[in-house]
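seq as requested:
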Amino acid sequence: MRTLLLLCAFLLCAILLGACGDAPAGAARARNLVLISVDTLRPDHLGCYGYERPTSPAIDALAARGVRFADVTSSAPWTLPAHTTMFTGLYPSHHGVKAYENTLPERITTLAEALGQQGFQTLAAVNTWNIADPRFDLFRGFAPEHLRYVRESEKVGGRERILNTGPKVVSEAEALLGARDPARPFFLFLHLYDAHTDYTPTPAYRERFVEPYPGLLDGSTAQLFQVRARGLPLSPGDVRFLEQMYDAEIAQLDDVLAGFLERLGAQGLLDDTLVALTSDHGEEFYEHGGLLHGRTQFQELVSVPLILAGPGLPAGRVIEEPVSLVDLFPTLLARMGVALPAPVDGLDLAPTWSAPAPALPPRVLLSEADHNNVVDGRGVVDIKRMARLGSEKLHVDRLTGAAQLFDLASDPGERADVAGARAEHVAVLRAALQRHLDGEVAGAAHGVELAPEELELLRGLGYAGDEGK
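struct tokens:
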């Protein structure tokens, strides 16, 4: 009985998405915050995450002087709900922004609002309507004159093609910084879309990263949507071309970031600024027969980078413990010395770099809010859901009820479904996922009790000691 009580207390603050207490902060504290979101950036295409091609020297250097999280799960495989999670510390079912028709409820405080209420100047430069559209209300806390939206496109063969605008977005951000009040701390959000399709690298970067390609693909979003919609087969050469174009885009944008960070350093701003770099989701390159993103919950879509560098953080630290994009909000506020405005789904990650591993309680990590799925000719939003505990990852189709279970420790490519052999594990993850979905209001996941049979199953998974101990 004693073990059951201890386990219940332990898991109520972990598996059910609660944030138990405040983690210790670092001795030094940053004055300013720069949050860089590189849309559609897969960590496995970055040098600091083990990629062989030289796509990311600036990002690698940032990781070398700070903390890099090796295993980060996004809350959604597409832009809008994932960025809303970044700004709120809540999963999509709790912040409610799961589709283009949704608006962030007024009761939820954003990162910019929380910092602005403490005297921070809040500045933002972005280049996609996926988050900038006023109907979503994600940019509460940014004054209109401090929010810059940059977008450029061209017509090619009757289709609009979005161009890379990283340099112009950075230029707008630097203009905002130059006009700030230096007596006040600042929060700058920088959103860069260049790694996202359409793939439009300059000839110099294309020559460096892309082999001669005789095929028909051009790297445009419109064309890839057609390929996906019609189920057209791609050859290995086609897929290689897309990946190489993606690499060229990353490398081109990395050079833009290099210049931006160098100029921040020249102004002395890096000395007292926390720089956080992450992404909203990845991209599919046919690993499971898919292209683009939004429709599945496989690692190529929900695994994202996360790097923190600045005062009070150790240099060159790599955290292997699984964490989530929901953890970014409470972690950034804690580093800025700002209290959480309300309960959130994430945890402050400070214990991961200041305490022995594992530093966080075991918990279920979630991803949901997919889009662009089609069933029987109808577009249906939010079909696929994911729940992960440790290395075990459950995929659930909410329409059919079908479930797949993969063990990332032995099967990182998610090829071998072990649901049949681990039915009890599937039941535990399904139950945790359902509890989450039953509380589709911010904070509703806190305090939900575990059933006795679920405690027994969790003991079988190794999350409790022997009864007599």
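Residues 236-266 form the longest helix (31 residues).
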